[in-house]
Amino acid sequence: MTQENWISAPNKHIEEYLDYYFDGKKNFQYAVLLNGAWGSGKTWFVKKYLEKKEDQGKKICYVSLNGIAKTSMIDEAIFKSIHPILGSKGAKLAGQILKGTLKTTIKVDLGGDSKSDGSISGGIPKIELPDYLKINDNFILVFDDLERCELKKEEVLGYINYFVEQDNIKTLIVSNEDEIKDNDDYARKKEKLIGATFSYIEDQDVAITSILQEVGNEELRDILILNFELVANTFNQVGYKNLRSFKQTIFDFERFYKKEYFEWKDSFYPEIFEKFLRAFLILSLENKKGIFHKQILNFIPDLDGKSNQKPVDKIAEAISGFEGENAQEFKKKYQINLKEYIFSKKLWDEILNKNIIDDKIIDTELYEKYFIFQEDQPTWYKLWYYLNLSDEVFSSLVIDAKESIEQSQLSNMTDILHTVSMLVYFKEKDLISFSVESLLVLAVDQFKKVVNLQENIKKFAYFDIREGAGGYGLYARELPIFQEFLKNISQAYEDKYFEKNIERVEELLDLMEHDNYEFYQQMTSKYYDYPILNSFESIYFLDQLLKIDYENAMSALDGLKSRYTVHSQSKIYLQEEEWFEKLIELTNEKLIQSTGLLEKHKIQDNFLPKLIEIKQEAYKG
């Protein structure tokens, strides 16, 4: 046998022995055990081997012991495997006759009601069995999933031993012995029954290829085989070495797949298909592993007070959309950001968990993520495929890109990022002659004008650039000059955010008076990591304390206390310490200057003691 004919080269020794065992005329009077971990591909290997034996004229009886709780269920499983066309009285009788070759008493069910209509003891009726029921050298008996049988394993081995010892049936047992609790009875039965044991060596590439070849859609099958490396690498990256689950995922993808999803104006876009295929494999397999919480791409949240994250990392989470330590690990594992998973969480959940495939929603989300660029292609998008361009077209597009920055024509973050990235990359590769430094300054100013502020994102201390890249890679991402540009646009965002602090301060002063609950929330949640109080004079805060109702004033101070102690993980007190010390100083001065008895009482007996308490607690924290 040439190497090309082996089912799996690493396991050819198993195949050679099985050929020797099943093809010879020798009466071995023992069974063969094939051991292997779940998902390793051993069942796939066995079924492929049995297909070869069937082609050679062997009669196969394959039985899965998974869930079997009684030996009578094995009897029925054997009969169904040999003769699957059940229902007629003749078939029922033939089944009982087959069992009669193993037992000294045959109970014949003539009525089809599972009740014995009589018994024949001491021998077998002389009934001529059809060829497909005759047991001879061409007959192979296979028991799979021994570890999943609900009977005691030693009882199962004893049952199988009857076939091997009394009827000389050549038998293969397939199992994951790591999942079987060994005992003396099991060991004795195994020693008596098993004459040869093999451990299956995982042969992943062959198994994956075989699964891909089972895809019924010929067009999709060819595309998947063409993308074998992407499929295999993703399977390995997920690390869920369960070929059953992988096979189910591939079949789920086949059910989902429509070529028109990845077409625009009669052109098929393989790069979009590949992005989607990888995302589908990751999310489907990780979902089968149980990593997600209630919905695809949702993760079990961190428990309050249990996270050791730095404030900068929390900002990174807000930018990336992956919140919590599990989510961050997931993000690091695949280096794919939320937007690069193409579909929304809701749509992924409908596809993978609810089996809902809505063409309209799928087309809409693919259009908004990718095909919108095909309809009105920005200059950077055309340059992204620069290797397909002629020199003349390339030069013209480069000039357009340069002028789009010089004339402030770029209206969104994606266009700015990619345009700058392409020009920086081309300069690095000596494909353009003009300087790009002055363009970067203009691009930063443009970015500041067009970027949309998000209130929960105060600064880009960690700017996850792919979130604004529209799902397309940035050519210059690793170049130092582009990294410096990213720092500058991050600073531009912070500057733009800071410029709105006057409005935020006015809002906080108003909340102190009219909505003490919302003031508390903003102090402890919205601005927990941002020194917003540095943006207005301490005297304004004190004046508002003295102006508003006493209950609201004390609630505002409670908000400060919680901000600096209970809720603060960012040591925000150290950033606002000077502001707070000034507040205490001004409060003491106000106490001396005040002429009102009640005002003096509030300051001396309530406000000042509370401020001192907050300071002491803040230092402890």
Written description of the protein model:
The protein is of the alpha/beta class. It has four domains: 147 residues, Rossmann fold (3-Layer(aba) Sandwich); 170 residues, no CATH class; 121 residues, no CATH class; 120 residues. Helix content is 57%, strand content 6%. Strands 2-5-6-1-7 form a five-stranded parallel beta sheet, with helices on both faces. Strands 3-4 form a two-stranded antiparallel sheet. α17 packs across α18. The chain is flat. It starts with 11 loop residues before the first helix and ends with a helix. The relative contact order is 0.05. About 9% of the residues have low confidence.
Can you summarize this structure?
The radius of gyration is 36 Å and the shape is flat. With 621 residues, it is an alpha/beta fold. It has helices at residues 12-23, 42-55, 71-82, 89-100, 153-167, 184-193, 204-213, 218-226, 228-238, 243-256, 270-289, 311-320, 325-334, 345-352, 359-375, 379-384, 391-406, 413-428, 437-450, 480-499, 501-514, 516-526, 538-547, 550-564, 572-593, 597-620, and strands at 31-35, 59-64, 105-107, 119-121, 139-144, 170-175, 194-199, 263-264, 267-268.
List keywords for this structure.
Rossmann fold; 5-stranded parallel β-sheet; 621 residues; 9 strands; alpha/beta; single chain; two-stranded antiparallel sheet; 6% strand
| Stretches with pLDDT under 50, minimum 5 residues | 85-97, 99-133, 310-316
Total domain modules? 4
End-to-end Cα distance, whole Å, is 75 Å
Principal-axis shape equals: flat
Structural class of the secondary elements?
A: alpha/beta
Count of individual beta strands: 9
Into which percentage range does the β-strand content fall? 5-15%
Across the major sheet, the strand order is: 2-5-6-1-7
Q: What does the main sheet amount to?
A: 5 strands, parallel
What is the helix fraction of residues, given as a range?
55-70%
What is the mean predicted local confidence, pLDDT?
Answer: 82
Rg over CA atoms:
36 Å
Count of individual helical segments:
26
